[in-house]
Design a protein that fits this description.
Chain A is mainly alpha-helical. Chain A has a domain of 87 residues. In chain A, strand 1 and strand 2 form a beta hairpin. In chain A, helix 1 packs antiparallel against helix 2. The longest helix of chain A is centred in the first third of the chain and has 52 residues. In chain B, 42% of the residues lie in helices and 20% in strands. Chain B is of the alpha/beta class. Chain B has 3 domains: 187 residues, 3-Layer(aba) Sandwich (Rossmann fold); 106 residues, Beta Barrel (OB fold (Dihydrolipoamide Acetyltransferase, E2P)); 138 residues, Orthogonal Bundle (Helicase, Ruva Protein, domain 3), CATH 1.10.8.60. The chains are: A mainly alpha (128), B alpha/beta (498). At the A-B interface, helix 1 of A face strand 3, strand 5 and strand 9 of B. Chain A: It is found in: Cytoplasm. Chain A: Keywords: Chaperone, Cytoplasm. Chain B: It catalyses: ATP + H2O = ADP + phosphate + H(+).
Chain lengths: 128, 498
């Protein structure tokens, strides 16, 4: 009786570890994607602020905004607020993903029975 | 890079050449259920080791502090070895400070100050630092200087990782920092988001073929992976003494390296305790109580003992392990005598772990481990003789005989240390008992000799003499090595003669 349940337990554990590992990889890729978007947004914001510094005659009232595969012509101020809003959301998302990632890796090492060195990393930072 | 490697290799060599008395100890040699086995260099003392194993569990859990443990036993029963084993088992998990009790007596520092420093050295605080930084390989730096020569510069910096690439606009200050660091395209750099500090990590490997002539200090690194803006978390473990020193004097942390810390004001310590307490409340710090090992604890005097009494009750106290080889003797600084030379009130607070003399079989095992440690090849006969030596004289004497007999063996160009080598060493170097006996016999021929209280030495010396003869006979029988003398000192004469 004990044999099959033990095997099932092992399988369950392996499955959990696999799922978690996959999840961690996805999160890591997502962090990269999010940061890429954050950087393009930052470049865009810079372009807009630079454009605003030009003499009035050369300034354009509207800005082309590229969202994935569509271009939208928007008033410059609206475009700017759009992007900065997106930027704020991205920052938050990146931070939460990072925190979750930490929990997930520590949980994974727990499932795998590996020594977990992540405990001190859950302390609050001293310099903030 | 090459230079570092050479010095590293040297380091390893010197470390391997030096063999200390306890260098064969690699841990406590306990399994998961705290059963003592003959492993990690530990032999015998299973009860004492099990006891220390329980202490180890206490330390690992970290919520117990301010406990005292006394390792009590005759000389050469492995008290220091057990403490060393504990230190090895603890590894980096907790701070382990080892002092000899005599260390605390100094002209420059009061006894209690030295003790306090040792105690605070054994308590560590774990803290975390978090920084946002941009890390990437420089693809291009473009700096525009205004045509007039004055005015603010502007520029662009293109950075990439293996996954992305982006352009940053640069202000005057960043341009200055970049030129100061001599950053060029192909360098891998980090920029601290909060302070704007730029650090050059090295040149990217992909650019390693750009030039045929490069300076010796050019380090090549891999192009970083992942996102450009990263969060770096660094965990530091510092002990309270280090924090004390950094905050106590004008010269700051340099005192840590010079060792010239002097006395640290209690106010400073008070402040640090409060600060650490605050951090702990805010979840910013974690206290790692460690172990303070005081060897030869009977050398402390009554003032130190009463100080320890009080110090152990402190909230931030480490586990204090003491070792003593004294029986009932006077407490230093008083006329009172007490077990182990420790006042009764302190003794009452300690968990006392006794160590017992090794059995013949254990001595044999220990000698075998030492033989391996010192890389000496010995025949079975030799080991038999050495074990007898360990039983009849002392384990330390037997261990010291290993190296010397190996040298004697090398002198006669032997490949294996035999009983005859050991017999020769035995005749060259006297042990405590023989030396005592000789002194007793020829006391009046020495300078400033006084009539000794015979009863003090009689009990020690009379037994071993018969034993020595037995030992010599055993060696002679095992290897037909003739020692034609009655008194051991005669052998020294003959040894020098030939």
């Amino acid at each position: 009786m004990a044999q099959p349940s033990e095997a099932a337990l092992v399988q369950q554990n392996l499955m959990k570890a696999e799922v978690l590992a996959e999840d961690i990889l996805i999160d890591k890729q997502q962090l990269i994607d999010l940061d890429r978007r954050r950087n393009t947004n930052r470049e865009a914001l810079r372009q807009i602020t630079d454009a605003k510094k030009r003499p009035l005659a050369q300034q354009e009232k509207k800005t082309w905004l590229c969202m994935r595969d569509i271009f939208i012509l928007l008033p410059t101020d609206t475009a700017e607020s759009f992007i900065s809003k997106d930027q704020k959301m991205l920052d938050e998302k990146i931070n939460t993903t990072r925190d979750e990632l930490k929990h997930k890796t520590s949980k994974l090492s727990q499932i795998e029975g590996a020594p977990d060195h992540s405990k001190p990393f859950f302390l609050n930072p001293i310099n903030k | 890079m090459d230079v570092a490697k050479i010095s590293e290799a040297k380091d390893l060599q010197t470390r391997m050449e030096r063999i200390g008395a306890h260098s064969h100890i690699r841990g406590l040699g306990l399994n998961d259920s705290l059963e003592a086995r003959a492993s990690e260099g530990m032999v015998g003392q299973s009860k004492a080791r099990k006891g220390v194993g329980i202490i180890y569990q206490m330390i690992k859990e970290g919520n117990l502090s301010g406990r005292g443990v006394l390792l009590a036993g005759q000389p050469g029963t492995g008290k220091t070895a057990i403490a060393m084993g504990l230190a090895q088992t603890l590894g980096a998990e907790a701070a382990f400070t080892s002092i000899a009790a005599s260390e605390i007596y100094s002209h420059e520092m009061s006894k209690t100050e030295a003790l306090t420093q040792a105690i605070r050295r054994s308590i560590a605080v774990r803290i975390k630092e978090e920084t946002e930084m941009i890390e990437g390989e420089v693809i291009e730096i473009q700096i525009d200087r205004p045509a007039s020569g004055t005015g603010s510069k502007s520029g662009k910096l293109t950075l990439k990782t293996t996954d992305m690439e982006t352009v940053y606009d640069l202000g005057g200050k960043m341009i200055d920092a970049l030129t100061k660091e001599k950053v060029t395209s192909g360098d891998v750099i980090t920029i601290d988001k909060a302070t704007g500090r730029i650090t050059r990590l090295g040149r990217s490997f992909t650019r390693s073929k750009d030039f045929e002539v490069v300076g010796s200090n050019v380090k090549f690194v891999q192009c970083p992976e992942g996102e450009l803006q990263k969060r770096k978390e660094v965990v530091h473990t510092v002990n309270l003494h280090e924090i004390d020193v950094i905050n106590s004097r004008n010269q700051g942390f340099m005192a840590l390296f010079s060792g010239d810390t002097g006395e640290i004001k209690p106010e400073v310590r008070e402040q640090i305790n409060t600060k650490v307490g605050e951090w702990r409340e805010e979840g910013k710090a974690e206290i790692v109580p460690g172990v303070l090992f005081i060897d030869e604890v009977h050398m402390l005097d009554i003032e130190c003992f009463s100080f320890l009494n009080q110090a152990m009750e402190n909230e931030l106290a480490p586990i204090i392990i003491m070792a003593s080889n004294r029986g009932i003797t006077t407490i230093r600084g008083t006329d009172q005598s007490s077990p182990h030379g420790i006042p009764i009130d302190l003794l009452d607070r300690l968990l006392i772990i006794p160590t017992v003399p090794y059995s013949e079989d254990e001595i044999r095992k220990i000698l075998k481990i030492r033989l391996e440690e010192e890389d000496v090849d010995m025949s079975d006969d030799g080991l038999d003789a050495l074990t007898r030596l360990g039983v009849e004289t002392s384990l330390r004497y037997a261990i010291q005989t290993i190296t010397t007999s190996a040298l004697v063996c090398a002198k006669r160009k032997g490949s294996q240390v035999e009983a005859q080598d050991i017999a020769k060493v035995y005749s060259l170097f006297v042990d405590v008992q023989r030396s005592t006996q000789y002194l007793q016999e020829y006391n009046e021929m020495y300078m400033f000799s006084e009539k000794q209280d015979k009863s003090l030495f009689a009990s020690r010396a009379s037994v071993p003499m018969s034993v020595i003869n037995v030992t010599l006979k055993l060696m002679a029988a095992s290897n037909k090595f003739q020692l034609s003398h009655n008194r051991s000192y005669g052998a020294i004469g003959s040894a020098f003669g030939c």
